[in-house]
Amino acid sequence: MAPILDPIAVGLSKARLTPTAITILGLLVTLVGAGLIAVDRYALGGFLAGVGATLDALDGPLARYQGSASVRGAFVDTMSDRVGEVALWAGLTFSLRADETGLMLCVLALAFSLLTPYVRSKAESWGAEGRGGWMGRGERMILMLVGLILHGWGLNVLRPMLWVFVILSGLTVAQRSRRTWQQLGAED
């Protein structure tokens, strides 16, 4: 377990919470945050989504502490991650519905957010290492949530955050794809 998360995982275990319960709670909090983002409450929505992401980070350490880590739990966690990301991008897309460029950036950001773990999953299913790149899930969440919170506080950072997100996430997909291609060997 990560040293920062150890005492929290111990406390959650003493409260008899299961990793799946923490995953679902984290997703529900993230969904509330996404709903607030959709109605232009960026700072509060971003904060709540951050709380949801923090809860999501605790399910793995809690499962390891309790000795209950399983493929089923990992599946629930992965699906929860994707649903949460889609909800956040859907909320922001709805909020930016009158902004054509903002909408397109949200669509691209969502696409790269989904392609990044997809490339990893496919690579690993073929025996390759699918990790790497600049924008893993943690970096994507931090960039998005910090951008939303700062925008909610009146700083005009939303559009630059979207551009940075799309560029770095796109490069991450390209990096992972290239690495996977190299590891699998060319079949020309």
Would you write up a description of this structure?
It contains seven helices and no strands. The protein is mainly alpha-helical and 188 residues long. The protein has two domains: 1-95, CDP-alcohol phosphotransferase transmembrane (TM) domain (Four Helix Bundle (Hemerythrin (Met), subunit A)), CATH 1.20.120; 97-188, Four Helix Bundle (Hemerythrin (Met), subunit A), CATH 1.20.120.1760. Helix 2 (19-38) runs antiparallel to helix 3, helix 4 (71-95) runs antiparallel to helix 5 and helix 5 packs parallel to helix 7 (158-184). It is flat, with a radius of gyration of 18 Å. 36% of the residues are buried. The mean pLDDT is 93.
Features:
flat; 2 domains; Four Helix Bundle (Hemerythrin (Met), subunit A); mainly alpha; 188 residues
Give a concise summary.
With 188 residues, this protein is mostly helical.
Instruction: Provide the CATH topology of the largest domain.
Output: Four Helix Bundle (Hemerythrin (Met), subunit A)
Order of helices and strands: HHHHHHH
**What can be said about the biggest beta sheet?**
none
Number of helices: 7
